Predict the 3D structure of the following.
Amino acid sequence: PADDSDPVFSPDGRWIAFYSSRQPVGIYRKASNSAGADELIATTGLATYPRDWSQDGRFVIYDNNASPSSLWVLPMDGDRKPARYAPASFNELQGHFSPDGRWVAYVSDETGRQEVFVQDFPLTGAKTAVSVMGGSEPRWRRDGRELFFLAADGRLMSVGVETKPEFRLGVPKPLFQTRLMNVPAISRRYGVSADGQRFLMNVPVGGDTLSPITVVLNWASGLKK
């Protein structure tokens, strides 16, 4: 009946949560086998896009793209009353739960440009910077031992993660250059397999076409003309 977007699967694969601009505007869910009607689970208002569903099934984290953009957490049981994750005066978005549910990777422009951070969940204030030269769209490997994100130049980056005895990150390293679609930051442009070995990328049609290479022979003779 209206624009529906930004679907995320529940951990057990039985449900899909998504944003809809229908009335009332908010986040809905539907059985993944299409059985039954769409169910409104939270009246969140315009431009509130689901980003992830925690592995224990208890929470959905979503972007609220009011100004400034902010991260909100929607409980999936009880009164389902959303609460802001990390109140701040700058833009925060693209939240993603760690597999054990103890951490949230997200994007913030608190430094003046978009960078990836990790903060604990529930929030106590502990925060760790992941990227240093620009970053966006963080994704966890299923075992939580690796975190991926996009660098400002479009390279896909990888960071090793340790959680015991305390949370620690390795040095970000590039995996490969992507050719992702240039779409708004609210969109999810890639996905990661559970083992972190395969990536599903949203690239332009014809994006695999290689640029030709021209070889000039005897180039020095041309300088005399």
Observations:
- The chain has a mean pLDDT of 92.
- Helices lie at 219-222.
- DSSP finds one helix and 19 strands in the chain.
